Amino acid sequence: MVRRPLLWGSAAVLTLLALAAPALGMRLAYPQNDVPKTVPIIATYDRIQQAFPQAPSPAMVVVTGTGLNGPAVRNAIAALQARASADGPIREPVTTQPVAGGRALIVNVPLAGNGTDSASDAALLTLRNRALPATLGRVGGISYAVTGSTAGNYDDTRQIDAAIPLVFAVVAMLAFGVLLVAFGSVTLPLISIGLNLLSVGAAYGLITLIFQDGRLQGLLGYTSFGGIIYWIPLFMFVLLFGLSMDYHVFILSRIRELRLRGMRTLSWAASPPAPAWSPARR
């Protein structure tokens, strides 16, 4: 391998690229959204739901401002109630509840879906982007925000998605700065960061193949739900990049020590020096 670094290095890069390719089809999701109905525990769960039906938690619209008991707010809530239906994205009944001594108002709005699936997400966007701006959004002197379990799950996922590029960029820039100061080279940090990203990509591809596509379900004894939990990729990147960078620093530090002692880059390939304990050193 040392005598043919270009050949073996190219083979390793191509292998890592092949392993990383399935990550292009990675799909982030919640397990409860897409678990197959044939899984025994899900079949049991469905029977429990049929015996003890329970609606998902409604979206909670928190309204603050002045004139919460005035006719403008009441008319806006009535208009919101008029948009509710038995089979639409906004369901019935829409109820209101004053809190904090009348300084705020909570409007409970049931949504379509089970609270975590795509139907609930679409209903949440309908509420936020269309229903509320057309009703409460037209009342002056008040402000509102949508919360609840569906909104919380949706916002958590979107915030993580938006933060991933920033996390990648910050970690890569910090790694570049540390290696630049430590080794006084621009090439070494770029190569190290590239190799680390390539190894992380290969790990992403493997979890996509194994856990999303379910290639080893029989061997490992699990059932794929067709996705990857939304926080796994970011957690893996931070962990794997940090561990990999540690080993890069250890290896590069040793190479630098040998170079400072006068060893040539290809000296090991040409004629390895005798170790310190060899009789040749005596």
Structure in a nutshell:
The protein has 282 residues and is an alpha+beta fold. The chain has helices spanning 5-20, 31-34, 40-51, 71-83, 118-134, 149-183, 187-212, 217-220, 232-260, 267-270; strands at residues 28-29, 59-65, 95-99, 104-109, 142-147, 228-229.
What is the count of DSSP helices, taking H or I runs of 4+ residues? 10
Helix/strand-derived class?
A: alpha+beta
List segments where confidence is low: pLDDT < 50 over at least 5 consecutive residues.
Answer: 267-272, 274-282
Walk across the major sheet and give the strand order.
Answer: 3-4-2-5
* Percentage of residues in helical conformation: 55-70%
How would a crystallographer describe the biggest sheet? 4 strands, antiparallel
What does this structure look like?
- This protein folds into two domains: about 140 residues, no CATH class; about 90 residues, Alpha-Beta Plaits (2-Layer Sandwich).
- The chain has ten helices and six strands; from the N terminus they run αβααβαββαβαααβαα.
- The strands form two sheets. The protein has a four-stranded antiparallel beta sheet. A two-stranded parallel sheet has the order 1-6.
- It is elongated.
- The C terminus is likely disordered.
Could you name the key traits of this structure?
elongated, 2 domains, 10 helices, alpha+beta, disordered C terminus, 57% helix, four-stranded antiparallel β-sheet, two-stranded parallel sheet, 282 residues, Alpha-Beta Plaits
